[in-house]
Specification:
- This protein has a six-stranded mixed β-sheet with strand order 15-19-20-18-17-16. The chain has a five-stranded antiparallel β-sheet with strand order 2-3-1-4-5.
- The protein is elongated and about 105 Å long.
- The protein is of the alpha+beta class and about 725 residues long.
- The relative contact order is 0.05.
């Protein structure tokens, strides 16, 4: 029965992405001069897992590229090569190429063959750079082995293998090229060109390297581990047999001495005696060794076991089911790791989680309706009904929080990409920059994690380009030549706060004002620092002296603020000239549920996001002032705030026309404060957000909607938009 491997492709893609992310993180943390062996081994294991899984699923281009990468990593971890900075660059470049190939296999663009060939050639060059061993052309010789002597420390190895179908052609050519790099290679026997089964290859290699150096290369192209490497001097080596009847094996590969049941892939070597017993189903006959064969565990994949040592060898088991199987194939290792991980986690599609969240939201609305209906019954409501509804409310809140936590992911998923950004960009700009991260375990809704990555990337690039000075300028200013960018995340109330800070030059107030005047923006010297700094968020605004491929075109910061506002967040700037700059992004923990304050205007109910609310008050006579063009301001603790009259904005009939009878709610939006005049405050509670734009259309000043307990729809106010309209109206009036 054949298995459709395509059903496992998505798991392979996801796990390969995780392995590449692990590799990149470890590479960026390596000390080039004194690399940690555990880190090198972890990087090698990640590459090995990708190679094995790619080969299993038939992605031969990925497998071949990763195999070349793995060879260089293997030489470094075995101290055969010294790690250098250009090798780390090559590994990172290879990771980028592998990501492109993964995307291509998933239908997202096409791989660049030139880039693949270039990185493979670069890795081969780095791996072969210091070998210096002579290579000989491949010579097809007679099966009889000629006696030759090697130089001091050199030995002859006999290599036998049956290639896998996927390795025929280019895979074998790559193997021969790599083996030539180890020393002198002879092709003693090879299958005929028209042999569809591939057939057996018999090679001899003269080298001063240990056989462990090229075991993986042979194993990579062999059919299910059908290979043997023997040291001709000691007649000890590595051999793996396949204990299963193989009646389909080519007749040329069967040994005449095996008897009726001998289905070995390889005939015994000339000096090897025939084995005793009729049940020897191994690929290889045992070598007459004076010492026990050296068998490397973990490469036989459980299907193969070491051949017995003559003459006291017992007959081998007749069937695979009788052999203790410990599968450790690269793909199986991935599966084993995934299986272990399933004890504590499970992969679920985002669509299913979103559907579950929507259903829980509907349950919350239904529960609120039942509770309000019971409250309207007053004393007529049975006590058991009220107790049950109270318990339902408690359970619904717990269920809501549990379901929401499913979408929560640590922000390290975003932070992990920035060490590479800082490394590459600082090298391009000729700057020395250290990135420090804090609060990587802080959790955020997955939908926000996907959307916050681009704004944070631009803030990091902005700090690198405009903030951190060149090393010579920093030294002249009495600073360390290495600048520092700090990325920090933490929870504050119902929000997550992300800070991007640097110890660079800070924002130049006068230069920003000058650029603003040149662009015709309404500015004055009386503006606060916060207001001046916010000018950099204007569309097309840039203080760069020249346009580069990093910045200077006046695009980006306005998009950053717009994207953050679309997530219900805001961005603030603090800066001291010559000291540094800090950008602070505040976001709600999730876009599905909102802590809000309900307010009444006429017969309508609106929801204010609680994170924007500072205080509420009832103004006194004389606190309200009217400017020209009928704009009004209210005095709050010595500061005049623009007033937004909500019933006028939406054309409603208010219960109050006197400002002293209604309520002023002071809001803080994007660093600016405004006072919102409403009829009354109704309460504070969590609401389930529904998209108004998806179900109706976009309405200015409205960010969404929710369903209240009585079934009525309440609109959620867009505080940032309302504050912006109020500021514009006040400026025109002034």
């Amino acid at each position: 029965m054949s298995i459709d491997m395509s059903q496992f492709y998505q798991v392979f893609f996801e796990e390969s992405e995780e392995h590449l992310a692990t590799m990149e993180s470890l590479l960026l943390g390596l000390d080039v001069d004194h690399p940690d062996l555990e880190q090198l081994n972890a990087i090698f294991r990640a590459a090995h897992s990708i190679k094995g899984s790619a080969g299993t699923f038939g992605f031969t281009d990925l497998a071949e590229t990763t195999h070349i990468l793995e060879n260089l990593l293997d030489r470094i971890r075995k101290s055969e090569l010294r790690l250098r900075a250009d090798m780390v660059d090559a590994f990172l470049q290879a990771g980028d190429v592998l990501r492109g190939m993964l995307d291509a296999h998933q239908g997202r663009g096409a791989a660049d063959p030139a880039a693949v060939a270039a990185v493979c050639e670069r890795l081969r060059h780095l791996s072969d750079g210091d070998r210096g061993l002579p290579s000989a052309p491949v010579a097809v010789a007679a099966p009889v082995l000629a006696e030759q002597s090697g130089g001091a420390g050199q030995r002859w190895f006999a290599i036998d293998f049956v290639p896998a179908a996927a390795a025929l052609g280019r895979g074998i050519d790559n193997l021969l090229d790599e083996l030539r790099g180890f020393g002198t290679l002879e092709v003693v026997d090879r299958p005929l060109p028209d042999d569809p089964a591939g057939g057996r290859w018999h090679l001899r290699l003269l080298t001063d390297r240990a056989q462990e150096s090229f075991v993986d290369q042979v194993d990579f192209v062999a059919e299910a581990g059908a290979w043997r490497i023997a040291d001709e001097a000691t007649e000890a080596g590595e051999a793996f047999g396949f204990f299963e009847d193989s009646p389909g094996a080519p007749a040329a590969l069967a040994s005449a001495d095996d008897g009726d049941g001998a289905y070995g892939f390889f005939a015994p070597l000339a000096e090897a005696p025939a084995t005793a017993g009729d049940e020897a189903y191994g690929f290889f006959e045992p070598l007459p060794a004076t010492a026990a064969p050296v068998v490397e565990e973990g490469e036989g994949y459980g299907f193969f076991a070491p051949l017995p040592v003559p003459p006291a060898a017992e007959p081998l088991p007749a069937r695979p089911a009788e052999v203790p199987v410990a599968i450790d194939k690269p793909a199986a290792r991935v599966a084993k790791g995934a299986a272990a991980a399933t004890d504590s986690s499970i992969r679920v599609s985002v669509e299913k989680v979103d559907q579950l969240i929507n259903l829980v939201g509907e349950l919350v609305i239904t529960q609120a309706m039942l509770l309000q209906s019971a409250a309207q019954m007053l004393d007529a409501a049975p006590e058991r009904l009220l107790n049950g509804l109270t318990q339902l409310e408690r359970n619904t809140r717990d269920l809501q929080e549990s379901v929401m936590s499913i979408r929560m992911m640590p922000i390290s998923f975003v932070f992990s990409r920035f060490p590479r950004v800082v490394r590459d960009l600082s090298a391009k700009l000729g700057k020395q920059v250290e990135l420090k991260t804090m609060g990587e375990t802080t959790e955020l809704d997955k939908s926000l994690i996907e959307r916050i990555a681009d704004p944070l990337t631009h803030l990091i690039r902005n700090s690198l380009d405009h903030g951190i000075e060149a090393p010579e300028k920093r030294v002249a200013a009495g600073k360390s030549p290495t600048g520092t960018i700090t990325l920090k995340a933490y929870h504050q109330g119902g929000n997550i706060v992300i800070e991007v800070g640097d110890d660079g030059a800070g924002l130049p107030r006068e230069k920003i004002l000058q650029k603003a005047r040149e662009r015709g923006l309404p500015v004055s010297e009386q503006m606060s620092d916060q207001e001046v700094f916010n000018l950099i968020f204007e569309a097309g605004f840039s203080t760069a002296e020249q346009i580069t491929d990093v910045s200077g075109r006046g695009v980006g910061m306005d998009v950053v603020r717009r994207n953050i506002q679309s997530m219900g967040g805001r961005v603030e700037i603090d800066s001291m000239y010559g000291i540094g700059t800090r950008m602070t992004v505040r976001l709600p923990l999730t876009l599905a549920i909102l802590d809000g304050m309900s307010v009444a205007v006429g017969d309508q109910i609106y929801i204010l996001p609680l994170s924007y609310v500072l205080e509420s008050l009832q103004p006194m006579a004389g606190d309200i002032k009217t400017l020209t063009n009928q704009a009004r301001v209210v005095q709050v603790r010595g500061e005049y705030l623009p007033v937004v009259v909500l019933h006028e904005m939406f054309g409603l009939k208010s219960a109050w026309n006197d400002f002293m009878q209604g309520i002023m709610v002071v809001l803080d939006a994007d660093g600016a404060r405004v006072a919102l005049f409403v009829d009354a405050l109704l309460g504070q509670h969590q609401v389930v957000i529904k998209s108004l734009e998806a179900n109706y259309r976009k309405v200015p000043g409205i960010s969404g909607a929710t369903i209240m307990g009585d079934g009525h729809v309440a609109l959620i106010l867009d505080v940032s938009a309302i504050a912006g309209m109020a500021r514009n109206h006040t400026q025109k009036a002034g």
